Amino acid sequence: MMLLIDAGNTRIKWAVPSDHPQREGRWRQQGAVARGELQSLAQAWAALDRPQRICVSNVAGPALRESLQQLLQQVFGSGPVIEWFASTLERAGLRNGYRDPARLGCDRFAAAIGARALYPDEELLVATCGTATTIDVVSAQGVFEGGMILPGFGTMATSLALNTAQLPQIDEVTPLAGIFADNTVEAIVSGCIAAQVGAIEHALAARERAHPHTARRCLLAGGAGLVLAPYLVLGETPLEKVDNLVLIGLHTAMNHAG
Ligand SMILES: Nc1ncnc2c1ncn2[C@@H]1O[C@H](COP(=O)(O)OP(=O)(O)O)[C@@H](O)[C@H]1O
Ligand SMILES: CC(C)(COP(=O)(O)O)[C@@H](O)C(=O)NCCC(=O)O
Ligand SMILES: [K+]
């Protein structure tokens, strides 16, 4: 059995891949907790069979890595081999085109590997909308070509509340009646949605200009993806909402040598 963990800056997502995906679906078990509720994973994981291998993508820093390591040891003992997934020059058939490959966020590298596993031989725009939003290009030849990093939807909205006297924290996002809102809360939501989908549409348009006559697909992942999907206007480019793209990438990578 294999345990896959995606530790982001807001939440920790995990899954156990199933043995018979056609029959049982991709994951046998899965879950997610806020970063501050890491300890609650002890209970969820205690119910699992002891994994032989554990693969972790962590972009939430060394303290989180330390806590996670202790927790894994506490629950599963020292038996399972832990791979701390890292960005390298090449993995699972994907080439990393970052100037310094190791500096690419390992969640972005994993998401790109996952995207390529889902859609081999297609050019892909991978938008992952978490604490940060990243918008990355994977070429049809299997090269991570590069991307953009911007504040995620929640981070953007929160920065307004923190840096202004009159703007409130947004707790809940309800569907917008229109782009030009007649109240403060919806005006903030509309503005932050416009910034997020605007960046994705801008990235796609730039790629279309640079490489016309190339079929491509946009994958949308991350916690804010659901909120943003209805507002994206991508013309003829198909849009796929993918849950747990980083975990799909880790699973793919684990089945290829490091
Ligand atoms: N229901 C929701 N409505 C709006 N935004 C959401 C919702 N759920 C999650 N988010 C956004 O998703 C982010 C967390 O997504 P996640 O993919 O878990 O991030 P990370 O990988 O950085 O931990 C939050 O910062 C928030 O912006
Ligand atoms: C861009 C990120 C902060 C995204 O993190 P997330 O929103 O998934 O929590 C993370 O991938 C990261 O720390 N990257 C390192 C820098 C880089 O990718 O260039
Ligand atoms: K992200």
From TrEMBL:
<dbReference type="InterPro" id="IPR004619">
    <property type="entry name" value="Type_III_PanK"/>
</dbReference>
<feature type="binding site">
    <location>
        <position position="98"/>
    </location>
    <ligand>
        <name>substrate</name>
    </ligand>
</feature>
<keyword id="KW-0173">Coenzyme A biosynthesis</keyword>
<keyword id="KW-0067">ATP-binding</keyword>
<keyword id="KW-0808">Transferase</keyword>
<feature type="binding site">
    <location>
        <begin position="6"/>
        <end position="13"/>
    </location>
    <ligand>
        <name>ATP</name>
    </ligand>
</feature>
<feature type="active site" description="Proton acceptor">
    <location>
        <position position="107"/>
    </location>
</feature>
<dbReference type="GO" id="GO:0004594">
    <property type="term" value="F:pantothenate kinase activity"/>
</dbReference>
<keyword id="KW-0547">Nucleotide-binding</keyword>
<feature type="binding site">
    <location>
        <begin position="105"/>
        <end position="108"/>
    </location>
    <ligand>
        <name>substrate</name>
    </ligand>
</feature>
<comment type="function">
    <text>Catalyzes the phosphorylation of pantothenate (Pan), the first step in CoA biosynthesis.</text>
</comment>
<dbReference type="GO" id="GO:0005524">
    <property type="term" value="F:ATP binding"/>
</dbReference>
<keyword id="KW-0963">Cytoplasm</keyword>
<feature type="binding site">
    <location>
        <position position="131"/>
    </location>
    <ligand>
        <name>ATP</name>
    </ligand>
</feature>
<feature type="binding site">
    <location>
        <position position="184"/>
    </location>
    <ligand>
        <name>substrate</name>
    </ligand>
</feature>
<dbReference type="GO" id="GO:0005737">
    <property type="term" value="C:cytoplasm"/>
</dbReference>
<dbReference type="InterPro" id="IPR043129">
    <property type="entry name" value="ATPase_NBD"/>
</dbReference>
<protein>
    <recommendedName>
        <fullName>Type III pantothenate kinase</fullName>
        <ecNumber>2.7.1.33</ecNumber>
    </recommendedName>
</protein>
<comment type="subunit">
    <text>Homodimer.</text>
</comment>
<comment type="pathway">
    <text>Cofactor biosynthesis; coenzyme A biosynthesis; CoA from (R)-pantothenate: step 1/5.</text>
</comment>
<dbReference type="Pfam" id="PF03309">
    <property type="entry name" value="Pan_kinase"/>
</dbReference>
<dbReference type="GO" id="GO:0015937">
    <property type="term" value="P:coenzyme A biosynthetic process"/>
</dbReference>
<keyword id="KW-0418">Kinase</keyword>
<keyword id="KW-0630">Potassium</keyword>
<comment type="similarity">
    <text>Belongs to the type III pantothenate kinase family.</text>
</comment>
